[in-house]
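Customer ticket, subject: "Can you confirm the structure for HTH tetR-type domain-containing protein?"

Message body: Hello, I'm evaluating your service for our small team and ran a test protein. I'd like someone to confirm that this is what the system normally returns, since I don't have a reference to compare against.
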Amino acid sequence: MPRSAQYDIEEILQQAVDIFLEYSFHGAIMDEIIARTSFNRRGFYLEFGSKQQFLYKVLEHYQTTQLMPVVSELETHQGITAINTFFLRYIPLVYSRGCLLINCVCELGKQDATVREMGRHYLDRLQLDFIGCLEKARLNGEIKVEINIESAALQLTSYVQGFAVNGILAENKEEMVIATEALLTPLQL
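Agent reply: Thanks for trying us out. I re-ran your input and got the following:
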């Protein structure tokens, strides 16, 4: 009879999110990953095969457990309110550590097709969700009629990318809230 795993894979993936946010992919050494996840080296390689494959699992976990709950706010397409709520929920996620997915795209996206595809899929989803929210905002009379919705959605999506980096550098969360207000105010009536 095969032995059952002596570890909680979800807990290990969550611990790994913290490690990769702290050290980056290249900066995170296997000894640190093994020590902080209470995984043994043999079990790690049996479960994941490589550090690269492990990263993909960690990114999937991060998207599912941390990023998508925030993005889901946009999928209600409730106009400007949904966009505001998205940013208010995104700030605590990225403040002082950045966004793991965007960090990995910046670090690995040029040479790693899987990371690049994950990032592209995320940004495409964001842009479509922003379009849906802006269309609803236009129907509700919340934004100026002359606003080009696709351009505004692209601008918001680009801002999210930069926001992930700025979250690492910002001195406080209020600075990020002010930046969000400055971005959204010109769109609104």
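A couple of notes from the result: The chain has one domain: 9-187. The chain has a mean pLDDT of 92. Feel free to reply with more questions.
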